[in-house]
Every structure is written in structure tokens, then in C-alpha cells.
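Note to self: the last two entries modelled the partners one at a time, which told us nothing about the interface. This time every component goes in together.
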Amino acid sequence: MRKYFFLSLSLLFLFSCEEEFVPKDINIPPQLVVESYIELSNNALPVYALLTNSLSFYDSFSIDQIQSNFVHGADVQIKVNSDSFKLNELCLSQLTPVLKELVYKQLGLDADSVKVDFCIYVDLLNQIPKLPNVPYKLDVKYDNEIYTASTSIPDFVPLDSIWFEDTPGKPLDSFAQMFCSIADPPTPNYYRYFTSKNRSQLIANVSSVTNDVFFNGKEFKFTLARSVDPGETFSDTLGLWRVGDTISVKWCLIDDSHYNFWNTLEVSRQRQGPFSSYVRIDGNVDKALGIFGGQRCETYTRIVKK
Amino acid sequence: MKNLFLLFFALISVASFSQSKECSISGYVKEQGSGETLIGVNIYLKENSTIGTVSNSYGFYSLNLPEGKHELVFSYIGYNTLFKAVDCQKNLKLDVNLSSGITIEEVVITSEDKEKNIKSTEMGTVDVKIETIKKIPALMGEVDVMKALQLLPGVSSANEGSSGLYVRGGGPDQNLVLLDEAVVYNTGHLFGFFSVFNSDAIKNVNLIKGTMPANYGSRISSVIDVQMKEGNNESYVVEGGIGLISSRLTVQGPIQKNKSSFILSGRRTYALDIAQPFIDKTDFKGTNYFFYDFNAKANYIISRKDRVYLSGYFGRDIFKFANEDRGFSVRLPYGNATGTLRWNHLINDHTFLNVALISNNYNFSLGGGQEEFQFSVASGVRDYSLKTDIDYYPSNKHQVKFGHRYTYHRLNPNIVRGTNGEVEFNSGFKPKYGHENELYAMDEWKLQSNFKLNAGLRFSIFSHVGPYNSVIQNKEFLQGQLVKSYFVPEPRIVANYSINNFSSLKAGFTLGSQYIHLVSSSSSTLPNDIWIPSTEKIKPQIGYQYALGYFVSLFQQEIDISVETYYKDLQNQLDYKESYIENFSSELEDQFVSGRGQAYGIEFFIQKKSGRLNGWVGYTLSKTEKWFSEIENGRKFPNTYDRPHDLVIVANYRLNSKWDLSSSFIYATGRTYTPIKSIFIINNQPNIEYGPRNNTRLKPYHRADISLSYANPLKKKNRFHSSWVFSVYNVYNRKNPFFSYTDFESNVFNGNLKARAVNVSLFTIIPSVTWNFYWNSKKETK
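The predicted structure of the combined assembly is written out below.
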């Protein structure tokens, strides 16, 4: 709703001007950042955890600075039921080309442009079972500290159908809008989605999550916007699908803490206006920043046609 | 506690009747030429100025004098002082008319007469004459009552350009803003950049910053009491103005000469209306923004003892956004409506009765959609009140007021409705209802010639009633069923000790309660912020204020100096939980946390009231902070509007009979904000981790404004005259940060990460010009 306010305030910005400044460094030691997912799907990667440190605010960051930001030597364990699995540290430079390609794809990276030899902790043998509605626990031991988190993989709610129609308002010949329908179960459900076109990387949209508070337990038809490409600016075709493209939609069910994380993160990224207040990103890792999230996903591929 | 109230009332009564034989003089004080009643006129004996009174909010006064011959003085800044010889053998009725005559050389943002600063029991109280407000340089030439108040010590704004008030560390919801006794819930147009008060329709503005007398309640910070003009009852007057962004027109005159009158006043902006032909040629045809407001008032003098007033306000902001190509549209209207029906009755020469029926309504809505998807969001407040006030003047040592107010509240939370094809959704939230009863009595008691006491007691009772689904009591309450009630006794006391004729010491204590709350998640209040009542989960806000002041008048009362210090203890303060995000799936009361607050400071005020050069200097040194056990483990943090240093200089200089120069300068410590603690990478993108709340400040704020007014000298033969006001806002183009944002250019795995922080200044130098006109059917000076 606030975006409409900001839109109307454009009037006042006729008089506005901008000035760069360097914020005060408030000199707080770096925190551990965890990004780890357990995905149940047909083409899921093994469970992995990306461990980094938070950075101070500087004008620019060198490759060396970014490189040194990865956390090495941590003990990372995933517990499910009564079993415990250790994730092994693996750096990009240690991977075979095939594995590298898989990692690039999963992380949405362009293989040619990756310059940082980043490291992850991974279930190398893909031993961790992906089970719905079972609690998973993450333990990270690092630098004499233990960081913990838990998550689960919810039941799946499929997209019942996907189709394309004319763009709203004045139809655009070469673009279409996508419609989907689901039958939402009468329990709280949290959804997240990613899109890609022509077999490119799957990207989460700037607002990629929703809950079912307004359609709980109903059959629901909705439009699904194409994810905003990196660097894409506002235009009349933002969110629309180009006719003839082969597109993919990755549709996921996530649990509530996973939803809260992405919801607060996405609002935090967007909320930077004259009347906005900051939003703290609500992670689920104790003593650390970030997310340990379970998700149940399916990917649907279609050719856009009206 | 009821017994306490009766005891207090009995003490007043005993004290009132144990007086020597006196006669009384009573009547109305009006402005000559228009018949407007004058509020706050000082009336006293020439031979003994300690015997005196002040006309009340309806222009009525009653003064008890020793039997014999006296000379009465009627004194009011901006008007010629009137001397009246009276022979007081029996009770007299004396209506007087004061003629304006010295407005040209006096600044009237002051107490009503030159000695009042010293002798009254008011603390932190300022009467602002609309003529003074019109002289102060204004943003885009829009004369603004609320922004004029921000130039007083102890008062600040949320953000540059905002008309919201923060008084002595209190939030904007803690100000009781009244328009002809009706509560105004939203005081701003255009997201708070302009106030809802049209200066042409306003007669008087009274600000009480702290030690609130017992006749005011339901808010814990301040009172802004705005009275509309009644309408000229002697001749027809048309006045108005054309400015850069809006125009105004006011018509007033007698319905029946000297018996009844009316005033109609309207204002509308047109900045985007002018741009419509260009907008129509773009994809955004149908997009527009404007606001308007309309004031109307009529009064009828039934007899010398009875008169009735009917007044109302209606204002709306309308924002429309359309994108025809994408079939998308949004409409966002919001605004206030108030209505007041008052009956004034003289029970006898000592007793004045006011009964008022009041309604007020604030509505916000947002609606729109795209093809099959349509949605609407609505919130608002609706009150109905019945109010009775009695002014009782039993002797020249006592002025007693007592009364009662009942208010029925209906508060709409965010009610969200929508359709998406055949699926309908509704947030399902129900309005909340409450009954608020207030009972008060107070006495201004002259214990000795140099010692006065204003003591009062107010009781407030709030009952939250159903329908309501109680989680705590595990019960569904039906319509009208009592869910939870609160009762707060509120003692108020101010003492004035006059050291001599030129200086006095004052001390005060106030306890107040507040049952209707508004919490903003942004750095300023917005029209979509939601008012909610006290419920079983939300306790009433309680505010204690202690104040001490030293007041002195120098150079035959030409210069007033005051130093006031205060401490406020604020309980049951509300804020949003950490990581709060607007959502329509849970009740707002579940999103709050409750905590404490405190504010303290010292205010210096030096004012030169008259002469070709007049104006004031105000400086405030203050601190305001709050703490919540659920936010950062109870760490005390400064409020967003905490301004340790706040300096204001206002100066008016009359260049000659045609030209006036006015200027103002403001310096304030920069606003607080929550700094970036660190950046962390998720999904190959940087994100911000914020540090301690409000731990850093924007750079200091300062600005100078200037205005030059040109008006032909008034001549009796002219019915029509006009004036020009040329003003420049932010004359030296200071780039005061309005907000800051962070921008990233990143692809972490490619080794590319750049961050920049940017301050945005919204209001750079802004020139404006306004043309004002005035026409009177009678050939007479204004």
C-alpha cells in the first residue's frame, strides 16, 4: 500500500536532491551468516550450507575481501530423526566441471563470470533423507560457538493448471500474462516461487513469498509475474511473459519461519522511502544471521502462447 | 475515589461562598465591525489589577467587584484598550466592543495581555492569533497553523515540511487537536505536509504544551484548541487568496443583522489539475491528486441568555492513479468531517453553561485493481460526544469550571476486502467500540494578591465493549457487552507566586490518561496509520508531567522572558514489535509491545511583543526516550523526534506603511535513525542488518525563510483591497536530509560489490507568491 503513497510523493521530489554520504562505522564484530536449504523435489541438490561473515559498510569490496569472507573449518551437522549427518567443506576450485555446473545452476550463477572461489558445506554423498513434516536440526560449531536452527519440509500443494492470457489493459501482441490455479488446503500454507525463461537460471521474484490468509482452503486463480531480472528497470512489460519463450516456474511450499525470513528480507530491501522505517530481517538461526529452510518444490515448464 | 471528588467540590463551594458582599459585572466582549466574540480578553480594575478575569472561549466574562465606582479595563493585544467607568451597586450586564487598531505594530503570538505572562496560572500555554500566523513565511505560500506552532519552544515536527506536532517529547497521537470542540484525528493534507486548518476560517489557536487544566483530557501531551470564526454579523465580507498550489475563498455576513451570522470558507489545491492536459496524453490518463476543505458556521442569538452555534468541517485528500494500458487503477481518498452544535446559556450573571453535541469522523480508504482482481482497504474513527461545561464565577477570588463529556467511539481497523474472479476475501476484522466518560472540576483560586492556585480533578472512565473475541478471557462478547473498563483519577495543579509586578514563579503537576492510540511504523504519521482503542490487551497510556517556570517581563512588559523546565513520565507507551511488517492477517493490537517513556527539558523564550521590529527567540534543550522489554532487551533509545537542541528565531519588521518583512530561522539537532550495522550476503545479494534503534542522527537541520508582504494602506472609502505575499522557503538552499537510503550494485560471486548511502533532501529553495483580497460591503476598514 505504501508504494502508492510514494508514487504520489513524486510531486514533491520535483524539489528534491541527493547527496552521497559515508555512514558511521558502528564497529560491531562480524556475525556468522548461514544460508542452508533442504529441498524435496525431483531435481534438488544435496543439502548444503553457505557460511559467511557479515561485512561492515564500505564503499566497495575487493575480490580478496569477499573471498576472505567465507567461513572455513566449521563443524556443520544436520540431524533428522535420530540420525546425524556431517556436511563437508568444499570449495569451488575442488569441484569437477559437472559438479560446478550444478552448483552454478542451483545458486543462479553465470559460470563464466564467477571470480570468487567460494566454499560451501555440503552433503557430498546426498545421504540426508528429504522427508515431509519431519523436524530437521542444524548445528554449526565454529570459533567456540554453537549456532542452531530447525526447519521442516511441508506438504506440497501443486499448481493445478498454468495458462496464458492477453496482457491487462491494452493487449500487447508479443507479451502475455500467466495465470495459475491451486486448491489451497484448509491449513496455513506458505508459498515461494522462482521463474526462468529459455532454460536460464531460476530467479526468485522481488516479492517471491505469500501466505494463504486470504484464500485459505479455497480454489484460487491468480496471476504469476515473471521474476525481475537483475538490473531490469521499471517498464510496461515488467512481470509479463514474452510469447514464444520457454519458461519455467519453480513452485515451493515452505514453513512459517522460512516464510518470515523471506518476507522480512524482501520488505527490507524494498522499504527505503521517505516515510519508511527499517525492517529487521527475521532469520531462524540462533545467534547468527540467515536461514535454514526446508522446502518442497516442483518445477513446471511451459511455452508461452496465447 | 468518588468521595475525593465530592470533597474537592465541597471545598470549592465553601471557599466560594465565604466572601464579602460584592456585585457582579458580566457580558460578552466582541470585535467592533464584525461582532466576533473575543476569547481571552483581560478584564480588570484599573485601580487594582489583581481583581480581574478573562473572557472565556465564547467571549463571555463575569467579574465580581466590591460595591462602588470603578474603572474597568478591557485589554487585548491587537486591539485598542477600552476603559469603562461602572457604578457597581447591583449586578450589571455590560457587553463591549473592542476595535482593532494596533495590529500593525504588534506581534500577537503571546498571552493576551501584557501582564498575563506573569499573573496567570497558565504554564506552557500560548495563544496564537491568526494574523501572526499569516505573517510567518510559509512553505509554498500555504499559511499553516500547525507549522507556526512548530516555531515555539518545546514543539517540533516529525520531518521537514510535516505539519505533525511533537510536543515536549510526546507523540502526535498524544495531542488533543480540537476544532470547535470536535476532535480532529488527522491534521494533515498531502501526507502531513499541509495542515487541515484553513487560516481564513480560523479565529484563534490555543496551544497548551504541558500542564493541562482539568477541563481538557483524553490525551497526555498537549492541547491544540482551534476556534473557527463565527461570521461577521454586521456586514458581508468576501476574502480569499490565490497561491501557487491552492486558492481560498471565504464568505461571511449577517443572516439577520446583529442577531445571526454565517461563514463559509473553502480551499482547494490545483497543482495537478493544471497538468491534466499533459497527463491525459500519457499512459497515466486519469491520474490526479488534490485536496480540499470546507468550513461552515452559523450562529443565532436567541436572547441575551441564549445563543446557538452550528459549525462543521469537511476535508478530503483524493489521490487517483491510473494506467490505462495495463488496466490498472488506484483511488485513495481520506479526510475528516466534524460537526458541532453548541448551546450557550447564561444561567445567571455568575454562571455560564455550554452544551455541545459533537460528531467527528475520519475515514481512510484505498481501492483499486486490475481486471478481475479488485481490492479495498478501509479504516477510520467515528465519535459522537455530548459535552457540558459550566463556568462559575462565585467571587473575584474564584473561577470555577466543572463539566462532563461522554464520547461514543467506533474505530475501524484495516478492513480488507477483495475479489479475484469468483473468490472473495475479507480480513474479517470488526470495528471496536468504546464509551468514554470524563468528569472534571477545577478552581482558579487567588489565595493572596501574589499567590494563585489552579487546582483541578478529572475522572476518566473508558469501557471497551463488544463485539469482541477475547483471547485472554476466552469469550466471544456480543454487541455492547462490556469487555474491559479502565478508571483513572487525574489530579491537575498549577501554582503561581508573583515575586513582584515583573516576575513570577510557577509550578505545576499534571496526570493524564489516554484511551485512543495511534502508532506509526514510519518516521512520520501517515493517513493510513490506524487509531485503536484501549482493550484488554492495550492499557491506557498514562502521563505524569512536572513543570517549573520563571517568568519575567521587562521594559514595561514590552519584552517577555520565560524559562520552563519539565519532566514527563510516560507509561504504557506503544510501539510495533521488532520485524513488524504491515499485514492484514492479524489484529493490530497483537502487533504492539508496551513500554515506558520519559522526556525532560528546559525551554527558553524571549519575545519582543511590539514595535516596528518584533518577534521571538526560543531555545529548547531536551531529551526524550523510551524503552520496551521486547525491543532490544529493554535498552533505552531516543525517540525518532528527539531533538536535544532546538533554536528558533522569528522576526517581523515593518519597513513602511506598505511593506512588511518577516523571517524565521530554525536550527535543530538532526533526526535520529537506525544505522546500518552490517551487510550480509544471502542468495548472492547483499542485505542490511540494522544496528541499535535510533542510535545515529542525520546531520543538523537548519533553514531560514523570508517573506515580504505588500498591502495598500487601508482607507475608509475602500471596500476592496488586496495584498501580495512573496516568500522564499529555505532561502540559502540548505540541503537538509529528509531521509536516507542505501543502494547496492552487486554480484558477490563475480567479485563485484559496491554500496552507497544517499541522503535525500526534499525541500530545497522554494519561492512562492500569493495574492490575497478582501471586500467588505460596508465602507469600513477591516
